[in-house]
DNA sequence: GCACACTCTCTCGACGTCAAGACAGTCGAC
DNA sequence: GTCGACTGTCTTGACGTCGAGAGAGTGTGC
């Protein structure tokens, strides 16, 4: 089945036959799919009264395991936002009682962000909802295709995630 | 090579062994990769004094072919933003002299957005820059792998692009 | 012809993000 | 010890996006 990127690529080949636009076949699909996923996630989370950004932070802490705490800096690398944004997010989550700030005992510049019990429950509930939705989206693909796709994507993400950039 | 999503999935399997988190292997990579690409694009465009959102609009018009004009509504579906955002974008691009608004002769509610000569030049220059950068990112993959990846992604994007939603 | 549902664009206010820089605390070289 | 470069977090102001809804215009069924 044709998608918007097929139309986009065909248009470029007509307008700029001198250029090789093959990279768009992969990377424009990644960008567009991510936007579609954002919208879908926003909808799925609204049932749990959570915003996507809240989910991102709460689940990062949940994944850390007991006692469910990370520094703001560690949260940055997991969520790919800037430090100012993370300060703001932590403020708002703390105001809602889903996380709390504690001084880092081993570094007085530092802070630890800890999930409250309610924050943990919300993280668990919304993860289940997200997985259900994602399974529906991936229903298009066989198990083997999903695994193939994951492996190819890993080759693209690994350099970003490992070389500090 | 391992990436951040491998670590994320391993953490979930440890913390929530009762859940099947396999969907994250694909979709978390898509979301994270898109964020990395956004950052890289922002950097690449800054050489041409363009923002990513400006690029998106100008190139949509450029692709339309002579006389390089589309309605705001057509631009919405191509760029995946809301109508309020598009009005704002067109305003700013018009103020910079890269596009102009014309009344739609066949529908008096409507408007046509047309690329100026300068807008067209900027679109052409920045596309070349973007493709160069994207080729570097995709250097990890063979031609066959890129084509495989594009085909798998198409299966995921096509439902979003074709079923209105 | 007329009413009514629909389409298209724009307006408005709230919100989240970013970039740049400030500030306190840390740590190695000497 | 102490100086200086570095690190981790927070502050600030500008900016772009969103959602909801308003207003003008269209066109179909009757």
UniProtKB/TrEMBL annotation, chains A, B:
Lineage: superkingdom: Bacteria
SMART domains in UniProt: HTH_MARR (SM00347)
Keyword Transcription regulation: yes
InterPro entries assigned: HTH_MarR-typ, Tscrpt_reg_MarR-type_CS, WH-like_DNA-bd_sf, WH_DNA-bd_sf
Alphabetical list of PANTHER family matching this protein: TRANSCRIPTIONAL REGULATOR, MARR, TRANSCRIPTIONAL REPRESSOR OF EMRAB OPERON
Gene: tamR
Taxon lineage: Bacteria, Bacillati, Actinomycetota, Actinomycetes, Kitasatosporales
Domain (HTH marR-type) ranges: 23-158
A Pfam family: MarR_2
Keyword Transcription: yes
PROSITE patterns, per the entry: HTH_MARR_1, HTH_MARR_2
Protein name: MarR family transcriptional regulator TamR
Keywords: DNA-binding, Transcription, Transcription regulation
């Amino acid at each position: 089945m044709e998608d918007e990127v097929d139309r986009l690529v065909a248009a470029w080949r007509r307008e700029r036959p001198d250029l090789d636009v093959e990279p768009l076949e992969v990377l424009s699909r990644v960008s567009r799919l991510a936007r579609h996923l954002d919208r879908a996630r926003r909808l799925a989370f609204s049932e749990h009264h959570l915003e996507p950004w809240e989910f991102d932070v709460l689940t990062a802490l949940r994944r850390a395991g007991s006692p469910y705490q990370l520094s703001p800096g560690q949260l940055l690398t997991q969520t790919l936002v800037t430090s100012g944004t993370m300060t703001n997010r932590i403020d708002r989550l703390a105001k809602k009682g889903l996380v709390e700030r504690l001084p880092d005992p081993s570094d007085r510049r530092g802070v630890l962000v800890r999930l409250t019990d309610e924050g943990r429950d919300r993280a668990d509930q919304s993860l289940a909802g997200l997985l259900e939705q994602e399974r529906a989206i991936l229903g298009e693909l066989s198990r083997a295709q999903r695994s193939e796709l994951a492996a190819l994507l890993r080759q693209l993400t690994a350099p970003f995630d490992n070389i500090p950039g």
